[in-house]
Specification:
It contains 5 helices and 9 strands. It has about 180 residues and is α+β, with helices and mostly antiparallel strands.
C-alpha cells in the first residue's frame, strides 16, 4: 500500500517535468541578462532538471566572459598582501582598480568586524544581476558572499573570533569572483 502511493507520487512528479532544447546560453532563459527572469523561465527551471543544469552552465559561461572582459581592460580583481593603507585601528581600507574593502573593527566594544565590499563602476558595468559576488582570500577563506545592492555594495559581519582577518590580509591576496 505504501509502495503504491510512493510510486504514484514519483510518477506524478516525473509527469510534471518538462525538458528543453539544447540551447544553453542565457538568452534561452531571458532576452536580457540584466532583466529578471520571466515567470515562464522560472517555471522551466522549476520543472526541468536539464534546464537547471543548462542555466548554471550558461551563467558560469557569462561569469567567465565578464571576468575575461575585466582582465582585458586591466581591472584588478585581487589585492596583494600589504597593498593596503591602514587609516587607524578602527577603520581599515584596502583597494585596487576593481573593488575596495573597508573593515570596521569595534571588537573592543563587543561588536563584530563589519566588512564592506564596494565594486567599482567598471566591475558593476559587466556585472550580471542574476549573480552574486564572493570575496575570499588566497588561503581559501571566504570573507563574504552576497548580491550587491544598486550601488555595488555587499556587507557582512565577521563573527568568528578565532580568525584574525587583519593578519590574514597581510599574508594572503584578497580576491573577488562572480558566482
Amino acid at each position: 500500500m505504501q509502495i503504491e502511493s510512493i510510486e504514484k507520487l514519483v510518477s506524478s512528479m516525473l509527469d510534471m517535468q518538462i525538458e528543453t532544447g539544447d540551447k544553453t546560453d542565457l538568452t534561452s532563459f531571458t532576452a536580457d541578462p540584466n532583466e529578471p527572469l520571466s515567470t515562464d523561465a522560472i517555471t522551466r527551471l522549476i520543472k526541468s532538471p536539464i534546464a537547471r543544469y543548462q542555466f548554471i552552465d550558461a551563467l558560469n559561461a557569462e561569469h567567465g566572459l565578464a571576468t575575461e572582459k575585466l582582465v582585458n581592460q586591466g581591472v584588478e580583481l585581487q589585492l596583494v598582501p600589504l597593498a593596503a593603507s591602514e587609516s587607524d585601528n578602527t577603520v581599515n581600507e584596502f583597494q585596487c582598480s576593481g573593488f575596495s574593502v573597508v573593515m570596521y573593527d569595534n571588537r573592543d566594544k563587543g561588536c563584530p568586524i563589519i566588512i564592506l565590499l564596494q565594486l567599482n563602476k567598471v566591475v558593476l558595468d559587466v556585472f550580471i544581476p542574476l549573480s552574486i559576488v564572493r570575496l575570499y582570500d588566497s588561503g581559501g577563506l571566504e570573507w563574504l558572499r552576497g548580491k550587491p545592492n544598486q550601488n555595488g555594495e555587499v556587507s557582512a559581519e565577521w563573527l568568528d573570533v578565532r580568525v584574525d582577518l587583519f593578519s590574514r590580509v597581510k599574508r594572503y591576496n584578497l580576491q573577488i569572483e562572480l558566482v
